[in-house]
Amino acid sequence: MNLYPLLRPLLFRLDPEAAHNLTLGGLRKLHGLGLLKPFLPEVPRLPRRVMGLDFPNPVGMAAGLDKNGEAIDALGALGFGFLELGAVTPRPQPGNPKPRLFRLPEALAIINRMGFNNLGVDHLLRNLAACSYRGILGVNLGKNFDTPIERAADDYLILLDKLYGKASFVTINISSPNTRNLRSLQGGDELDALLGAIRARQQSLADRHGQYMPVAVKIAPDLEDEQIAAMAGLFRKHRIDALIATNTTLERRGVQHLAHGQETGGLSGAPLREKSTRVIRAFHAALAGELPIIGAGGILSGRDAKAKLDAGAALVQFYSGLIYRGPELVKETIAATRNYVRA
Fold first, then answer.
1. Entry pTM
2. What residue ranges define each of the domains in the chain, with the CATH number in brackets?
């Protein structure tokens, strides 16, 4: 029974951030009472092995929806093949001033400038320890806003130390547009140094724990061909386990005339679709398929997900699509990708 088309108009009357928190809390309560399952679609299995991990299907929940791991079990029940929590930072931080989340319904889009608002890694770790979910679970890592950009690696290493073995994989987020100067870490020397530090710590932790936890990197869609070529070389050099393409965009083409279309922050949803797919295709070519890509950005239908896989993605994930389409999008996307998963 798909109730989301009835609930969405009510939720869209609320402030976007209030609606987000209400929905997350409601899902958690319904799941805790055992009342969520009757309203969820049955999803088919479509196993996929990526980063040495066995995913039950190639469709995931993107970071940003559950930053603090407050509703892991409920979100896991929606049928996703994997969840990505966060972004989390070493210390709690409030994020940017409100309002900081805006819907653009005419464009099936969202603009956010949340600023890595979260309760810190120790809070997330407590929620991870308390959850029952045993599926593939990623955690998106960010730096605290007041950590100087030249010390950003320190924050990522703290998070890697604390989360190692507590998650299936982690993602180094160097592409959020809402933390000042963060995207400068995508540059040549800065990226080389950061990846070198991350890779060295990953190997040390693997030896210490006797298990290997993959590390992905999340990149921006606003990249030129020369940047893509240079970054691909560094991902190869440091043997990064996966690439998530892409984060939100700073571009406003096609939405600038809409209400809230000129708000600062990252734009996601349908307007990002082609831009992110272009970046996936370019990285797939530059990497010659050596590194798996998780495709994100503008997935609001099964057809959109197929386009990401055709461009070279091994897995897909979405967040804005869930806001506009609800849990049915999970089932539709899994079914639509059945014949498009690459070997």
1. 0.97
2. 40-336 (3.20.20.70)
